[in-house]
Amino acid sequence: MKRIGTVLLLLLLMATTLTACGEEEGLQDGYYTAQAKEFNFGWKEYVTILVKGGSIVSVEYNAENASGFIKSWDNAYMQTMLHSNGTYPNEYTRYYAGQLLEGQQEDGIDALTGASSSYGSFQKLAAAVLEQARQGDSSTAFVDTSE
After folding, report:
1. pTM of structure
2. Which of 31, 43, 47, 53 has its CA 20 to 30 A from that of 8?
C-alpha cells in the first residue's frame, strides 16, 4: 500500500512538472505592455495586450505624447498624415493590432502602405510584449524602436 502511495505521489509530481513546462511556453493570463524607450517625433509608441485562457483577447497599439495625449485622437495630425501618406494613426494602429489579435503571434503581420515606420516599431513592440506574456512578467518592457 505504501508503494502505491509513493507511485501516485510520483505521478502527481510529474504531472505538475509537465503542466508547469507547458505554461512557460504559452502565453500566461494577464495584461502586458511594451513601450518605446524614447519619444520619436514627439510620440512614444506602446502595445498592450490582455491574455485570457492562454490567448490574446485584446490588443491596443498607439502612441502618446509627453502629456499623455493619444496620437490616434489628434485630428489635425490625422488630416496631415492622411493627405501625405494615405493613412492615419487611428487606421494603422487598429490594423496592426487586429492582425496581432487574429494571428496570435508577431509573425505574419503585413505592413500597411504609408505606415511602414510604425510597422517596424509595432513588430519590435509586439515581439517584446509577447515575450512578457510568455514569461508572465507584467512589468512594462521598454524597447529601442529606433534601430
Report:
1. 0.77
2. 53
pLDDT tens-digit map of 37-50? 999 989 999 999 99
Diameter of the chain measured on Cα atoms? 79
Q: How many CB atoms lie within 10 A of CB 21?
A: 9
In angstroms, rounded to a whole number, what is the distance separating the alpha carbons of residues 89 and 87?
A: 7
85 by DSSP, 3-state: which? helix
Q: pLDDT tens digits, residue range 124-135?
A: 999 999 999 999
What does the alpha-carbon distance between residue 37 and residue 136 come to, in Å, rounded to a whole number? 21
Determine contact, residues 128/35, Cβ cutoff 8 Å: no
- Find all residues with CB under 8 Å of 14, minimum gap 6, and list them: none
- Enter the DSSP assignment of 54: T
